[in-house]
Design a protein that fits this description.
BirA Bifunctional Protein, domain 2; binds 2-{3-[(4-chloropyridin-2-yl)amino]phenoxy}-N-methylacetamide; aminoacyl-trna synthetase; 12 helices; two-stranded antiparallel sheet; magnesium ion binding; ATP-binding; single chain
């Protein structure tokens, strides 16, 4: 039996030494140490030995088992290390290779312009307000001093959904809602950017959907000179400190008096050129003092409060600032157009 055990030891260690893969190593463990393994079956025959021989053979058997186990574990470590080395080798990367370019998107030109205008007015203490694009007849017209059958309603051809519901034709209803929210007592400054809709045939200067930004300041003692100063600051920040503005009388149903603002043409500096059509001035926006009827309908006492309001088209601003000559390019989204205006 001692010879048998010794033979197992020699054979097992030899095979372990030769083995090249972990799977075969597991098989070897089972062959010798498993439940039906050769060492195990030798040990099972120990019952037949004499009392004196048993502990001697038992000790040898334990040593053989320990030797095989130790050898197996050492070999497993060797093989595992080798496998890891091989994997690291296979997965190595060349960090000196140039990277693949990643395509980065950016804001749409109109988004950039709207955000620039927002930042500018936030800097002057204005809050940004938004409202629904599907509006009621009341907030879109009635509350803005445009009662039913008012001739000025014909000026804006409207997309009606029902008799009372429509796609807003301007962002003014957001302002009417804000005045109501502030219950005729709170002074405030706000601007409201957003999409508006008009029934129109699209061409280079008209679109049935476009964006508008309106501003409103309501407080005690708000005056025309406040409007002029605010718009002057806006024009200079937006188009350059060397621009000047002028106000011309105009008409809007929701303001009285109403004005239109021009900036001096930056192409000819007021001399007159094709961009300003020889006048030296370019029309930018409209505004005025909030009509007392509008204040009153919103709950502000026109004897105590006054306000100014203005409205502009970001498309027009962007077209003037960047020399875009067709409003439709904002919506057809040709990437060759859009790409030119990514400020990374
Ligand atoms: C333009 C002119 C304007 C307003 C908008 C307004 C709003 C309220 C009260 C009074 Cl709630 N006015 N908005 C006033 C004057 C002109 O827009 O040319 N927009 C593109």
């Amino acid at each position: 039996m001692k010879e048998q055990l010794e033979a197992i030891r020699v054979e097992a260690l030899e095979r372990i030494a030769e083995v090249e893969d972990i799977k075969t190593l597991q098989d070897i463990r089972i062959t010798y140490l498993g439940k039906k393994g050769s060492l195990t079956s030798v040990l099972k025959g120990m019952g037949k030995l004499s009392k004196e021989e048993r502990p001697v053979v038992g000790e040898i058997a334990n040593k053989v088992r320990d030797a095989i186990t130790t050898s197996l574990e050492a070999k497993i470590e060797v093989l595992e290390n080798a496998a890891l080395e091989k994997q690291l080798e296979a997965e190595s990367i060349d960090v000196t290779l140039p990277g693949r370019p990643v395509k980065v998107g950016g804001p749409h030109l109109l988004t950039s312009i709207v955000e620039e205008i927002e930042d500018l007015f936030i800097g002057m203490g204005y809050e940004i307000k938004e409202g629904p694009e599907v509006e009621t007849d009341y907030f879109n017209f009635e509350a803005l001093n445009l009662p039913k059958n008012h001739p000025a309603r014909d000026m804006q051809d409207t997309f009606y959904i029902t008799n009372e519901l429509l796609l807003r034709t301007h962002t003014s209803p957001v302002q009417a809602r804000t005045m109501r929210e502030y219950k005729g007592i709170k002074p405030f400054k706000m601007i409201c950017p957003g999409k508006v809709y008009r029934r129109d045939n699209d061409d280079a200067t008209h679109s049935h959907q476009f964006t508008q930004i309106e501003g409103l300041y309501v407080d005690k003692n708000v005056r025309m000179s406040d409007l002029k100063g605010t718009l002057d600051t806006f024009a200079k920040k937006m188009f350059g400190e060397d621009r000047s503005i002028r106000l011309r009388p105009s008409f809007f149903p929701f303001t009285e008096p109403s004005v239109e603002m021009d900036i001096s043409c930056k192409v000819c500096n007021g001399e007159g050129c094709s961009v300003c059509k020889g006048t030296g001035w370019i029309e930018i926006l409209g505004g005025g003092m909030v009509h007392p009827n509008v204040l009153e309908m919103a709950g502000y006492d026109p004897q105590v409060y006054s306000g100014f309001a203005f409205g502009m088209g970001p498309e027009r601003i962007a077209m003037l600032k960047y020399g875009v000559n067709d409003i439709r390019t904002f919506y057809t989204n040709d990437v060759r157009f859009l790409k030119q205006y990514h400020q990374a």
